[in-house]
Design brief:
Blueprint (H helix, E strand, L loop, with lengths): L1 H6 L11 H9 L2 H24 L19 H12 L5 H17 L3 H5 L5 H35 L4 E2 L5 E2 L1 H18 L1 H11 L5 H19 L30 H27 L5
Antiparallel strand pairs: 1-2
Helix pairs in contact: 2-7, 3-7, 4-7, 4-8, 5-7, 5-9, 5-10, 7-8, 9-10, 9-11
């Protein structure tokens, strides 16, 4: 097959399965629309919860990020990220990256894509690019909607910090953008796990559930203080390092360490996915 495809007139491996085509395919799927709806509705749910429960207040004089949620739209967006980064945002990343290859196998269309012929590496590259940009879009969507909803509900104003003081809107927006970027980088481990599992199984739910389950296990291990400094090698240990961006003086060390750990794990997992898929016997 390789000899035929290399000599076929007009055949260009780079033109098979374009990212644009794969993007349209994935955007039209019901799970994409459902996930976008869930993320878009969460800020409205939070506003309703604050309206029913009243203005949050610190216990025993201690002020947390949650306590400042209703001070401004920027505070509300930061709070929405705080309540969702630990688990909710894990789900769309695992879904988009874990469902992408395994779903083709479950539909028995994977072998037909490869017979098109789409080179295996090209197929994985296209699907990984689309899965990652859709994951990034999901992570960006939540704070954007939260910022708009929070501004409508609580007004436009500075970002009041739990530690005291505030950041002007001109300072707050770049800080929130930095937070979103770090959250995306911290989710690359989940993306790598889901994508690797997606190349190993024909069951999309197995890949998605496996990635979510392993992420939860990482969170549990990070809570085991007996592990001491070993916890610093866990991506979960740094998942809330972005709180350092919501300080009067921007602190980079935690976010840089967390990003390095997450990217390192992700690169290894992506490499395993490509290596295993290149040798896999595709029968579905």
């Amino acid at each position: 097959m390789s000899a035929l495809t290399e000599s076929a007139a007009g055949y260009r491996a780079r033109r098979t399965l374009p990212v644009r085509v794969e993007s349209v395919r994935q955007l039209k799927r019901r799970r994409t629309l459902a996930m976008g709806l869930v993320l878009g509705l969460l800020p409205f749910v939070l506003v309703a919860a604050f309206a029913i429960g009243g203005t949050p207040g610190g216990a025993s004089g201690r002020i947390t990020l949650m306590d400042t949620a209703t001070r401004s739209g920027a505070n509300f967006a930061a709070t929405a990220l705080f309540v969702s980064a630990g688990f909710l945002l894990v789900v769309p990343v695992a879904l988009f990256c874990g469902d992408t290859v395994a779903s083709e196998a479950s539909w028995s269309s994977l072998r037909y894509l490869l017979a098109a012929p789409v080179p295996r590496a090209r197929l994985l590259v296209s699907k990984l690019i689309v899965a990652l940009w859709m994951s990034a879009a999901a992570i960006v969507l939540l704070p954007l909607v939260a910022l708009a909803v929070g501004t409508a509900a609580y007004g436009w104003g500075p970002l009041e910090l739990p530690t005291g003081g505030s950041l002007s809107t001109s300072e707050a927006l770049p800080r929130l953008a930095l937070v979103v970027a770090f959250v995306f980088l911290s989710q690359l481990v989940t993306a790598g796990l889901a994508f690797w599992l997606s190349t190993k199984t024909d069951a999309p739910l197995g890949a998605v559930g496996g990635a979510v389950g392993l992420t939860i296990i990482g969170n549990v291990l990070d809570a085991v203080t007996a592990l001491g400094d070993w916890r610093q090698f866990l991506p979960a240990h740094w998942q809330f390092a972005w709180i350092d961006a919501l300080q009067p003086g921007l602190e980079w060390s935690g976010m840089l360490k967390g990003s390095a750990v997450s990217v390192a794990y992700a690169l290894v997992l992506f490499a395993l996915a490509f290596r295993g898929f290149a040798r896999k016997d595709i029968v579905s």
